[in-house]
Amino acid sequence: MNLSFFDQFTSPCLLGIPLILFSMLFPALLLPSPNNRWITNRLSTLQLWRFHLITKQLMIPLNKNGHKWALLLTSLMILLLMINLLGLLPYTFTPTTQLSMNMALAFPLWLATLLTGLRNQPSIALGHLLPEGTPTPLIPALIMIETTSLLIRPLALGVRLTANLTAGHLLIQLISTATTALLPIMPTVSLLTALILFLLTMLEVAVAMIQAYVFVLLLSLYLQENI
To answer: What InterPro entries is this protein classified in (predicted)?
Structure first.
């Protein structure tokens, strides 16, 4: 029984080929195709409004030099958002529950922000490792602590996204299993459990959106430190 709970996090394969790449590309098919008109229908209007809102929120912490990252950050936000939400559908696979995928997204982007700071303003970027006014005996220890906190940032990004989504999926499966098992024995308790399952599903929808936003927002904050 315990193994079956974690089977949902195993990447499905077809003829030995992992289908995780197809599941990552599928959300792009849900976006309306571009047209030569600015606004074609209500769906396009809603899509443009959503993209504008997301881009505005992500660009607030950044100055003008960071606005060139708008397309990359907005695209990443839309990708994570749609993958997280589609993963809540029954009999689907959520790629963002895989730590390997989240680290593959977090590490290169974090490294890009770090290299940007080292190239444009190396003294300020290295100055973050040692706060101003630090007593001399504490300098070696503080440099090691700040370096560790800097290097652990991509791991924190990947683990945060993986842990939150994995915990939510496990809770949904556990409560849905309990609902099905209690239905022939105690129908009243089963209905109560089904209500809890519905509320938990609504909560997971919110968590899926919040985690996608937090992932990209932290990247934008790391970028702001280095530009």
So the answer is: ATP_synth_F0_asu, ATP_synth_F0_asu_AS, ATP_synth_F0_asu_bact/mt, F0_ATP_A_sf
Residues whose CB falls within 8 Å of the CB of residue 55, separated by 6 or more in sequence, listed in order: 70, 73, 74
DSSP letter assigned to residue 33: P
8 A C-beta contact, residue 58 and residue 77: yes
Amino acid at 70: A
Query: Any idea which residue has 């809770």 for tokens?
Result: 171
Return the bridge partners of 18, or none: 13
CA distance 103 to 82: 18
* φ, ψ at 148 (rounded to 5°): -65, -45
Q: Tens digit of pLDDT for each residue in 72-101?
A: 888 888 889 888 888 888 777 788 888 888
Rounded to whole angstroms, the Cα distance separating 99 from 105 reads 10
Q: Which residues contact 27 (CB under 8 A, 6 or more apart)?
A: 78, 79, 82, 83, 86
Enumerate the β-bridge partners of residue 17: 14
